[in-house]
Amino acid sequence: MISQDHPASMFKSKIKSSLPYALAVAIIGFVSLWIRTRPSDSVFLSNGFVRFGGNDPWYHMRTLNVLLENYPNRVFFNPMTNYPNGSYIHFGPLFDQMMAITALALGMGSPGQDLVNTIGAYFPAVLGALTVIPVYYIGKYLGGHKTGILAAILIAFAPGQFLSRSLLGFTDHHVAESLFSTLFIMFFMLAIITAKKKNLHFEDVLNKNLTVVKEPLIYSVIAGVMYSAYQLSWPGASLFLLVALVYAIIQYVLDNFHGELSDYLGFTGIITFLVSAILVLPFVHPDMGFSLYYYSWFHVATAIGAVAGFGVLSFIQREFKNRNLKTYYYPLAVLGIGILGLLATRIASPSIYSLIINAPHTVFGVQTGGPATIAEVSSIFYEGGAFTLSRVFGNFTASGFFASLLGMFILTANLFRKPKPEKVLVLVWSVLIFLTIYGQNRFAYYYSINVSILSAYVGGLLLEKVKWSQLNEKFKTTVKSPADFQGFLKFVKIEQVLAVLAIVVVLIYPVYGTAMETTTGTGGPDGTWIEACLWLQSYTPDPGMDYNAVYEAPEDGELFDYPDSAYGVMSWWDYGHWIETIGHRMPNANPFQAGIGGRRGSIDEENQPGSSTFFTAQSEEEATAVLEAVHPDPDKAGARYIISDVEMATGKFYAMTAWTLDTEGYYQPYWTGSGYQYLPSTRYFDSMESRLHILDGNGLKQYRLVHETWAYQTQGEVLYKQVYNLLYGESIPEVDTGFVKIFEYVKGAKVTGTASPNETVNIKTTILTGQGRTFDYSQSTTSDSEGRYEFTVPYSTEGPISGETRFDTAPAGPYVISYGNTTREVRVNEEAVLKGEEVKV
């Protein structure tokens, strides 16, 4: 017979007591998954198209497909974007590899595109649901099972960026960051708890005392694996290494003041980051030097530096104890060694020193200039330059946000007692992540986890105040069957009911309600952009690149060797990944903020060629000069096609000017009867973006509209056209036109003829678009002293030719040239337009 104290019996008892909580977490996890898959109709469209959300998810699907096409070889340099430079891929390899392995397994080694798309769409939702598990355990070790369960519920419904980035179809690495960073904290916490509980000392390691070392060692190794997984999901994972180091310094100081050795912490830190240094080493690209944004020696060096840091902190502490030095000298010694370490780093490796010094501003600082227009990297507390809590409440709800602050306040107050290491860790982790959302609101997907845990901690303390644990024990002893439940109710006190109601109403219901609103649909390209990109893929010439090939990066300082048939597509950077992944064409600018051009430091800098300088150019000649300057070869243009949408012409236009650091004069105040309103000025209408989108390229010599999508009803386009007509006394139709428009940059045919000397000569035609819309195209010039005149026109009246753009927008008839009482018709073929040939009238 097995004794009740036998290890096997104790293990069975532990499993039995944990089973209800495991079941509860599993149910919460499935609810979390259900929430994230609610908007399936907006992802899996009725026509079979899978609409991934946002921008970067499209790039992950791009890299996933290249990986599967060339498995196990992964693309590192991509020439199909940021034309004509290409881009190194800074995305971590793990997220794509996990999806690829899943696809290969389910597809029996040869997955079809439908399966790949389905796996890609569901992957973020699954990872988001799995985050419930580490959040539960962190909550449990912070405040017991009740705290863990409440934390799991809160993160399952957590709204804002954590939910939006883990929705069905948002196939981005951010949810993997959240999951693996939380798993790292969980196992790091477990390693610390078990090492301290077993009173681990370095002598136990030397003496191979496995009874003491085994469990902390296992947890520390797993913590290292999780940190590596986090690192291989996002190269900026050093953020959590900073969390660990700051926590370690504070914990060492606290232990020193309490007369305790921190060997348990030193052991955990050394093992964790030694494992991570080993695991990340195979992914280092030596050519990247010590870059923070690509997998480089920096990631190995920081992990080894953390190992050294934990070792030095332990060594100093032991020396203090052996020499009976005063405890308050310890923080000074740590500070001094830290300063000496920075000085040594500055001498030994200025590049690493620069990264370390600039890291706080990069992560915690508020962006200015063009970067401030990037939605996800602007401060969560500022919008339009004004302080606001609206985005805070949108991400965490008001009650959740203030509960998290209260939780941090309570944990801070505990520092003056003798806090448990796990509570100090959660406090430091939460404070640092809170600081990150001040710098960049994108980190709200991290802080949502802290909000859930801290809110649950506050809720758990409330339940402790009303003696919830006693009620729980009474439930276990009195309720053996459903019939016993009525008798149990007499033990329930009114304050316990009120406490539960308060938690449900204040903490759970707000996140639930916001989550239900968030999951009604997903972001990503709308129908017009999908249609425009698919048109681009089908009706423009093949650029001569193997779309799914793995290309070698060019030698340092050299450009990628593109075929002569290659060309770029100029648009705003937001749309680069859609152009590449849906359109199979090479954007000049992309959401990695490559190819934008403009200025970064001051208005005195040279305005670099790129999308911002092209679209804000004040004349066709200036814009063309930018387009030509994008490509280093003087005989080649940076782009053949230009894509614009209504948002670029209205709301996003300010962002273009911000990247040039020259924002003045595009808008001016107009009296509207009830007050002044800032509306477009002549400088705006002189911009290339206005000339293309608002005015349809009318009068331009080398840019022609080749395709437009259907129109949406917008106030912006109509209003801008009304202002234009008032400013210039014109009468362009005040209607919405194609939401997305594709233009082609051509040499233009040279239409020449003779008239009377110094005569005003006009050329005009009516353009018919694929949507059945018509607009006028016209130019005017003056003949010279001998009566000669010349027009450069971009449209062919004879239709497309094989191997070139198969445009659906063209003149409805011939060009009409008029001067005096004379009118003449002239037709222009496509070869003349493409080659810049002369057409004589």
UniProtKB/TrEMBL annotation:
GO MF, any single term: oligosaccharyl transferase activity
> Which enzyme class, named as a word?
transferase
Q: How does it sit in the membrane?
A: Multi-pass membrane protein
- What does this protein need as cofactor? Mg(2+); Mn(2+)
Stretches assigned to the AglB-like core domain: 528-649
Its keywords, alphabetically, are:
Glycosyltransferase, Magnesium, Manganese, Membrane, Metal-binding, Transferase, Transmembrane, Transmembrane helix
Domain Archaeal glycosylation protein B peripheral per the UniProt entry, residue ranges: 748-839
Q: Where are the transmembrane segments?
A: 18-35, 119-137, 149-168, 174-195, 239-257, 264-284, 296-316, 328-348, 396-416, 423-439, 445-463, 494-512
InterPro entries xrefs: AglB-like_core, AglB_P1, Oligo_trans_STT3, OlisacTrfase_arch, STT3_N
Which reaction equations make up its catalytic activity?
an archaeal dolichyl phosphooligosaccharide + [protein]-L-asparagine = an archaeal dolichyl phosphate + a glycoprotein with the oligosaccharide chain attached by N-beta-D-glycosyl linkage to a protein L-asparagine
A Pfam family of the record is: AglB_core-like
GO CC terms of this entry: plasma membrane
Q: Where in the cell is it found?
A: Cell membrane
Asked if the record carries the keyword Membrane, the reply is yes
Q: Which domain of life is it from?
A: Archaea
What pathway is this protein a component of?
A: Protein modification; protein glycosylation
Task: Give the UniProt family note.
Answer: Belongs to the STT3 family.
Please state what the protein is called. Answer: dolichyl-phosphooligosaccharide-protein glycotransferase
User: Which source organism does the UniProt entry give?
Assistant: Methanosarcina horonobensis HB-1 = JCM 15518
